[in-house]
Write a structure and sequence with these properties.
heterodimer, A: about 290 residues, alpha/beta, Rossmann fold, 2 domains, 5-stranded mixed beta sheet, 10 strands, about 30% helix, B: alpha+beta, Gyrase A, domain 2, Alpha-Beta Plaits, 4 domains, 4-stranded antiparallel beta sheet, about 35% helix, binds iron/sulfur cluster, CbiX-like (chain A), Sirohydro_Cobaltochel/CbiX (chain A), Cobalamin (Vitamin B12) biosynthesis CbiX protein (chain A), cobalt (chain A)
Chain lengths: ~290, ~350
């Protein structure tokens, strides 16, 4: 049986950064589609450099738990995994539709399926919606609600904005929320002015981040005016300038993320149909009243 | 030994079996059964079974090692001192347990059911702690939690830092789960140790690691070899990290900093060291200058006490009233009150 390696950023400073990676890895483990599932990190261990040698399987699916395509997924991860003959053109992506490339790695004798990041997979739109369901505790949330998808801006990584817009477009096309907008931290339209961009009284704000940390727990809540000092916390929803802001925190903590990891592997040829069923059942939003 | 182990041996004999002094074969003239003490050939099945039953440890020992991956087998055999102890001696000792230290991990191997193995893992400092006083775990993944924070609740970004907290044990692990648990505590250490054993450790030295960097880390290539020496001395010695440093400036230029005595190798500068190197590279971009500052001789030596206390992680140990220690808080506050204003020495002058 093949192995799944989940590659994530991790942190030297924040002990909670790896939590979503571990949680989703455990969900995938429990679904039984892979003999081995291993987490690897840029800032923690095992490092990208050394994870492949810890795997017994000869076939490995590598899925980046990153929100966008760009510097990390196109340059750092393939380089550190020592993927031979990697070239970003193998993904044939315009920034939001990377699929997979089958390669070898220089330091191990294995076949590596290097998949696009979870963040630009179409199924990620469903996770955003499910995050909105979770924070409002309403499995039918949509009517009367606006939804904001939030990310860094282009200042940091050109494709980061593309991923945000891509999912905002997709969720808008679902025709479920009254309004859907993409908002950014470093550029217009800015998340600071969230209430200017929505007519709906209720607005769910979902940051497209893998883990909660400085940006999602301190920056964004303060910028939106949920609180003057994040340490004092805030209500959900919080009343801001006549709107109810339902702030969801990092989308990456939503259990359904495990489904996207599997979808990525499935797109690369892994046989995970049963596991997908199991994961979807386990990570579904409980029906109202549950 | 149980019946299915015996049946498996009989079946495998046709292809020939050798393991730790046991050899068993089968051909037209019957079975052979050889241990360091006995050697018989031309055996009937009944005779073969009888001999195996008289030497159960050899059979269960062979059975135990079938099917393990190369890496796991090498590690688990090292754990039970297989290269030093024959089967008989090993089984006798395994009754009470054979131990090995792996960083701050203490691995104890005992005999499991039917002559297989059972493993226990705990902190080396808990070697003699009563089981009842330790939190018991069984799932390898729980090692991720145990290893995230140190005794004082501080985050451990470096897994092989000698700051693992005490007070836990993983009990009744099979071989695969033992290796998984060890690898959650100290990722990739078993894999790299095995490569080293096989003479195939692929070391990436500092310079090539620096040249590989992009983005904000590309500056680390500006560090000269003396700075790399200081970097290894600062971050990689045993008081900071239990891996044995095998990387140097480059293949031809070894660093003098002690490599450490650890069982498992470090094959390249880790992400923490690369991040530290980036800071050092930025700081090393400055030229030195000469300063003049007025201090008493005791104040001057107090400055080195302060640097030492921070560098040795001793700050928290210095007692409140131990004003004889230059790094004592009152002493430091007194110095600040007397000599500093707005975070700078009042008498400081830069000399041209
Ligand atoms: S680079 Fe130094 S600190 Fe990092 S793992 Fe190796 S020996 Fe330890």
């Amino acid at each position: 049986m093949p192995a799944l390696v989940i590659v994530a950023h991790g942190s030297h400073l924040n002990p909670g950064s790896h939590d979503p990676t571990f949680t989703h890895a455990d969900t995938v483990r429990a679904a039984g589609a892979f003999d081995e599932v291993r987490e690897a990190f840029w800032k923690e261990e095992p490092s990208f450099r050394e994870v492949l040698r810890t795997i017994e399987s000869e076939e490995v699916y590598v899925v980046p738990l990153f929100v966008s395509e760009g510097y990390f997924t196109e340059e750092v991860i393939p380089r550190e995994l020592r993927l031979e003959d990697w070239d970003v053109s193998l993904w044939d992506s315009d920034g939001t539709d990377a699929d997979t490339a089958t390669l070898t790695a220089a330091d191990v004798d294995k076949t590596i399926h290097y998949c696009g990041p979870v963040g630009t997979h179409p199924a990620m739109s469903d996770v955003i919606v499910q995050r909105a369901e979770s924070v409002t505790q309403n499995p039918d949330v949509g009517e009367g609600f606006g939804l904001a998808v939030v990310g860094h801006g282009t200042n940091r990584n050109e494709n980061s904005a593309k991923a945000i817009e891509y999912h905002a477009d997709r969720v808008r096309e679902m025709d479920r929320f009254d309004e859907v907008n993409a908002l950014f931290m470093d550029e217009e339209p800015e998340v600071d002015d969230v209430t200017d961009y929505f007519e709906s009284e209720d607005v769910v704000v979902v940051p497209l981040f893998v883990a909660d940390g400085y940006h999602t727990q301190e920056d964004i809540p303060e910028d939106m005016g949920l609180t003057d000092d994040y340490r004092e916390g805030y209500e959900t929803p919080t009343e801001v300038e006549g709107h109810h802001i339902w702030y969801a925190g990092a989308v990456g903590t939503e259990p359904l993320m495990a489904d996207v990891l599997l979808e990525r592997a499935a797109d690369a040829g892994a046989d995970v149909d049963e596991a997908l069923d199991i994961v979807r059942k386990r990570t579904a939003t409980p029906a109202a009243g549950d | 030994m149980n019946d299915s182990q015996l049946a498996a041996l009989r079946e495998a004999a046709a292809d020939g079996v050798t393991r730790d002094g046991l050899s068993a074969t089968q051909d037209d003239s019957g079975y052979t059964f050889v241990t360091p003490e006995v050697s018989h050939d031309g055996l009937s099945e009944e005779e073969f079974d009888a001999l195996a039953t008289e030497n159960p440890w050899f059979v269960s020992n062979w059975h135990y090692w079938r099917g393990a991956s190369e890496t796991n087998e090498a590690f688990l055999r090292w754990v039970e001192h297989a290269s030093e102890l024959g089967v008989r001696e090993r089984y006798e000792t395994l009754v009470n347990g054979l131990t090995r230290e792996w960083g701050e991990l203490l691995v104890t191997t005992t005999l499991g059911t039917d002559g297989e193995r059972s493993y226990e893992l705990r902190h080396t400092a808990d070697a003699t702690t009563a089981v009842a006083e330790l939190d018991s775990y069984h799932d390898p993944r729980e090692a991720r939690e145990v290893s995230t924070l140190d005794e004082d609740g501080r985050y451990r970004p470096l897994k092989t830092a000698p700051t693992l907290r005490e007070g836990w044990r993983f009990a009744d692990l099979d071989g695969r789960d033992l290796v998984r648990t060890v690898e959650f505590f100290y990722p990739a250490t078993v894999a790299n140790w095995y490569r080293e054993q096989a003479g195939e450790l692929d070391v990436s030295h500092f310079r090539e690691t620096a040249e590989r960097q992009t983005g904000i880390y590309s500056v680390i290539d500006d560090l000269d070899v003396d700075s790399v020496e200081n970097l290894a001395e600062a971050c990689c010695v045993d008081s900071q990290c239990l891996k044995r440093r095998e990387w140097d400036e480059d293949e031809e230029t070894p660093l003098d900093a002690p490599r450490g005595d650890g069982e498992f190798p470090c094959r390249e500068p880790c992400s923490l060291v690369v991040a530290a190197a980036r800071q050092f590279a930025v700081l090393e971009g400055e030229e030195t200058r000469t300063y003049e500052v007025e201090l008493t001789p005791s104040e001057r030596s107090q400055l080195t006490d302060l640097v030492d206390a921070v560098a040795d992680g001793r700050v928290d140990e210095i007692r409140e009233a131990d004003v004889g220690d230059g790094a004592n808080r009152y002493r430091a506050r007194y110095l600040r009150a007397k000599r500093l204003a707005d975070g700078e020495f009042e008498s400081l002058r830069e000399k041209n």
